[in-house]
Amino acid sequence: MDVKSLFRRKDISRGGYGEEISDYGLKRVLGVKDLTLFGIAAIIGAGIFSTIGRAAFNGGPAVSLLFVFVAFACVFTALCYAQFASMISTSGSAYTYTYATLGELFAWAIGWALILEYAVSNMVIAISWSGYFTTMLEGFGLHWPHYLSIGYLSAYEAYKQALSGATDLPSNVLLASETYRTAPVFMGMKVLVNIPAGAIIAILSVLVFVGIKESKVVNNLLVFLKIGIILLVIFAGCFFVKPENWSPFAPNGIQGVLGGVAAVFFSFIGFDSISTTAEECKNPQRDMPRAMLYCLAVCTVLYIGITLVLTGMVNFKELGVDDPLAYVFQKVDMDMIAGIVSVSAVVAITSAILVFQIGQPRIWMTMSRDGLLWPRFGKVHPKYKTPTFATIVAGILVCVPSLFLDMQFVVDLTSVGTFFAFITVCSGVLYLDYKGYSKKAKFKVPYINGQYIVGLLFLAMAAFFLFKMDYKSIIEEKPLLLIFWLTWIGLSIAAYRFRFSLLPTVGILINLYLMTELGWSNWYMFLIWLIIGLIVYFLYGHKKSKLAASNKE
Fold it and tell me: Which of 223, 208, 541, 235 is nearest to 391 (CA)?
């Protein structure tokens, strides 16, 4: 096997990879407003109703600045996505961009990682949606059976914890344990099925199958409703803000604020889902870059507003709860607003599921057209103009596991692949600069010469950590940081030699650092999935690749 064949690239000037916009039978119905709302739907999901509380509990009111910092950090990656979106009008997100720059093997790895990320993310969101949905029903006086709203593995794990004699177990664990104990038995098995989680995936998959126009209408409605409710919460909460709750502003110092950086970062990463709909945009090269930056700006303002209101209404020490928005309004006897919050959580998470369920089949469709997946994944329905087979498989792949799996198990499968994709997109922009392709981009990442700055930043940070950190504890607790520092050294040398653009380089470093913050379980699961993917690639994709066929001709 020729090693060079592993790094064959799509010609960035042909076939939908340049100024020409290819038409593969999908409907071009999305404008910049629709794309922006897709991005907002993906970014503002369950996180705004739970992550903010935990982050504020650790960092105090200063966590509002953390959202500014994280949004600023995301901009480096978003700018790189935006440049690619202005140059490449083909669906596929990071997979497509990587194929045009770093080559086929890296593109396959990213595409395979995105299959896992989109599927598992929606499993997590669906399980979370089920919890909010049943809580909302309780608020209306309707009781949904517990054994029909929890997966078998979740209930069984809780039951084992209760049997172990552990004390001070959370109330949700005790409830899950009791649900397992009292669940009905059918053919010798406990009946424990998360029906709401599976049902919402099934319903939204049907909507995605029917058409992008219908999905757009539903998503726009949900997002407008979601934004309206969030603004209501912010303005209503302003009347109960006590400025003394903002003092001290950073009670646990910078470490307390940065402690939530990884969790908060995940509140912003949905903007990449916009790029999966490139072939359904009216003017992708103009509208997609704008939409990516617009949705980041809107979501940042909303997150900061919510954080300031939360920490102003109650002391930050009270926010270590799973439902901080509902909690603070219950504290001030505004139960009606608390009820609205529970409804808005269901709306917010529904729109997030919809967007990710739209994105996944389109990545498969693009990989199939390139010959790397079975041709049926690339088929477009003649009437509905959607990737038929890919949408059905994506629905089944997400729906069935969400009925039974434990949420923590699927959470461990997420994260690493997303950062991996972000790093390759930022690296791809450096490649475009090196080859001179960036000059043709309709939107370009602002060029700041990082020849000296990258190295100087490394020396400054190394000097800071030299006096502040215990290296022995770092090596024992976070050995992955060594990879981060070694990569920074390599980038400093490369930046000096090739005059790397500063912004994509910083994007690489930020995403790599956040990868080191993830647990080992995330890495193990990702590596196992990647190995499986490489086996599939060498047995099928490498031989069936359209580029392989064209090279033979």
Answer: 208
Domain harbouring 341, CATH code: 1.20.1740.10
Please tell me the distance from the alpha carbon of residue 323 to that of residue 320, in angstroms, as a whole number.
Answer: 9
Range of the domain at 128: 3-137+198-448+501-552
CB atoms within 10 A of CB 504: 27
Q: How far is CA 271 from the centre of its chain?
A: 8
As averages over each run of 10 residues, the pLDDT of the chain (553 residues) reads 83 54 74 94 75 77 83 87 89 90 94 86 85 82 90 88 76 85 90 94 96 94 90 88 87 73 69 88 90 91 89 84 76 78 83 92 93 93 92 95 76 72 94 89 92 94 71 63 90 96 94 80 84 94 86 59
Query: Is 11 inside a domain boundary?
Result: yes
- In sign, the C-alpha dihedral spanning 536, 526, 390, 402 is positive
Q: How many domains does the chain have?
A: 1
Q: Name the token pair of 500.
A: 């790397």
Distance between CA 303 and CA 230 in Å, rounded?
9
Lookup: tokens for 318: 């009270």
Within a 10 A sphere around the Cβ of 243, how many other Cβ atoms?
7
| Residue indicated by tokens 């890919």 | 390
Residue 317 counted as domain residue = yes
Distance of CA 473 to the CA centre of its chain: 30
Instruction: Give burial (CB, 10 Å; 0-12/13-18/19+) of 375.
Output: exposed
Angle subtended at Cα 385 by Cα 379 and Cα 389, rounded to the nearest 5 degrees: 35
Runs of H (alpha helix) within 140-243: 152-163, 171-182, 195-210, 212-238
Q: Specify if 178 maps to a domain.
A: no
Which pTM value belongs to this model? Answer: 0.89
In angstroms, the CA 179 to CA 174 distance is: 9
- CA dihedral for 299, 304, 309, 314, sign (positive or negative): positive
Mean pLDDT, all residues of the chain: 85
Say if residues 326 and 132 touch (Cβ distance below 8 Å).
Answer: no
Around Cβ 466, how many Cβ atoms within 10 Å?
Answer: 9
Kindly state whether residue 280 falls inside one of the protein's structural domains: yes
CB atoms within 10 A of CB 335: 12
- Rounded distance, CA 503 to CA 325, Å? 35
Question: Cα 331 to the chain's mean position, in Å?
Answer: 32
